[in-house]
Amino acid sequence: MRIGHGYDVHKLTEGRELYLCGVKIDYEKGLLGHSDADVALHALCDAMLGAAALGDIGKHFPDSDDKYRGISSMILLEETKKLIADHGLAVENADITIVCQKPKLAPYIAEMRNNISKVLGVDVSDVNVKATTTEGLGFEGEGLGISSTAIVLLK
Question: Does the pTM exceed 0.85?
Answer without folding.
Answer: yes
